[in-house]
Amino acid sequence: MSMPKRKLGAHGPEVGAIGFGCMSFAGFFGAADDETSLETLAAVEAAGIDFWDTANIYGMGHSERIVGQYLKETGAEVTLATKVGIVPGPPRSFDNSEDYIRAELESSLEKLHRDKVELYYIHRRAQEVPIEILAETMGKLIQEGLIDAWGLSEVAPATIRRAHKVVPVTAVQNEYSLWTRQPELGVIQTCEELGIAFIPFSPLARGALGVSDLDPSQFQDHDFRRVNPRFVEPNWSENLDYIHAFRAYAEKKGVTAPALALAWVLHQGDHLIPIPGTRTSTHLHDWAKAASIGLSEDDLWDLEQILPVGWAAGDRYSDAQLLGIERYC
């Protein structure tokens, strides 16, 4: 399937306008099995999605192993991103030291069956390491050919600027969707100004903007959303009222709700490359053609009325989940 292309940063490669997040393969949003995950990756490749995102922390390397297995077995050519910096707990902590980053990168490359990755993110910034020192570490990895470029996740505009002055940042990854719009308060603009790709994760609101209602009472114990404030009552019932109105509008337009939600994200700037994720190819087909959906000024106005800024009840993370996130507003 043909997929429109966008630049992964001012000096990066062209990739599909829609990428793919592989977090779900580790069971963060319900049980996942390897056979289904591999089938999903085949559907992702067939859809023309060639920018894949994983992390060493997803299932303690399980997501990377699944991606690596698929790449080894099929020879698929994709632009690959993985992440480092979160140390599993309890208690959860963060490590941005050069020794830790190098050791984790070696482990990730082994799982991915790669000699290098095109993009290596700092998953969370460890505040005790000056961002300039961290940038220098990433610059060494680039010079050594172990990574092509580096990025940051869940950081403030000031951090992006400081890092970019030392070693140019290629991509910044933060949560962004119709129900999480904080990046509009500086991150999106900073990335555009500096020629950095902005990579929205969870652009479908962690499944909330899907084709049917989620039932939080059925979430498994290890499901990330089980303690997420937006999925806990009374917040969830309040949020459903808005979601139903949005879904009705999408139906009126003849598209699915997730495709419309993703089209809205794509419309926010040519430097945005969202990375929705899914455990199954069925859900993939719900939004895979979102890049072909045009939105008029009237459509955008309608969406602002249906889902006004700040409509979601509850914080996007619980207090424990917020650990390591840079706040700037």
From TrEMBL:
SUPFAM superfamilies: NAD(P)-linked oxidoreductase (SSF51430). GO terms for molecular function: oxidoreductase activity. It comes from the Bacteria. Residues 17-306 form the NADP-dependent oxidoreductase domain. The keyword Methyltransferase does not apply. Gene3D superfamilies: NADP-dependent oxidoreductase domain (3.20.20.100). Keywords: Oxidoreductase. GO terms for cellular component: cytoplasm. InterPro entries: Aldo-Keto_reductase (IPR050791), NAD(P)_OxRdtase_dom_sf (IPR036812), NADP_OxRdtase_dom (IPR023210). This is Predicted oxidoreductase. It comes from Celeribacter halophilus. The lineage of its organism: Bacteria, Pseudomonadati, Pseudomonadota, Alphaproteobacteria, Rhodobacterales.
